[in-house]
TrEMBL record:
<dbReference type="InterPro" id="IPR029039">
    <property type="entry name" value="Flavoprotein-like_sf"/>
</dbReference>
<dbReference type="InterPro" id="IPR008254">
    <property type="entry name" value="Flavodoxin/NO_synth"/>
</dbReference>
<dbReference type="Pfam" id="PF00258">
    <property type="entry name" value="Flavodoxin_1"/>
</dbReference>
<protein>
    <submittedName>
        <fullName>Flavodoxin domain-containing protein</fullName>
    </submittedName>
</protein>
<keyword id="KW-0285">Flavoprotein</keyword>
<keyword id="KW-0288">FMN</keyword>
<feature type="domain" description="Flavodoxin-like">
    <location>
        <begin position="4"/>
        <end position="144"/>
    </location>
</feature>
């Protein structure tokens, strides 16, 4: 069974809640899912990690939340290739702001640069979705089955 590492960047706690619920859902589906609170670039090199799930909100002008920016910079500095590993991104934001889901876009570009086997992104608009797990559950189930 695939091992999935889950990380999150959250400003008000919504992305954290989605990451926690996603970790539980993946475990229920039979995957080995682990939520990492303080991730570093080294986690991408773990030989037993098959996939990385990034749950992130966007702050400021399309910026990555403070608690995830360290991982982003660390990955850029160390550039650990993700050849053969898959990435999923749950990008959360508010479409009334410029640079809607900019943090998710930045991680998507970075995962492509690291040559991730596949990169799939779900975008959740807070102006349309009050309960993000309604959108996340079917997407996450399909994403996990593709591993």
């Amino acid at each position: 069974m695939s091992k999935i590492t889950v990380v999150y960047g959250s400003v008000r706690g919504n992305a954290k809640a989605v990451a926690e619920a996603s970790t539980q859902l993946l475990s229920t589906l039979g995957y080995e899912a682990e939520l990492i609170e303080n991730p570093t670039a080294e986690l991408l090199q773990a030989p037993d990690m098959d996939a990385l799930l990034i749950c992130t909100s966007t702050t400021g002008q399309g910026d990555i939340p403070q608690n995830l920016v360290g991982l982003y910079v660390d990955i850029q500095d160390k550039f650990p290739m993700m050849t053969g590993k898959k990435a999923g991104i749950i990008a959360m934001g508010d479409s009334s702001y410029p640079n809607f889901c900019g943090a998710g876009e930045k991680f998507e570009e970075l995962m492509h640069e690291l040559q991730s086997a596949t990169v799939t992104r779900l975008t959740i608009d807070a102006t349309e979705t009050r309960e993000p797990m309604r959108d996340v559950k079917p997407w996450l189930t399909e994403w996990a089955e593709s591993l």
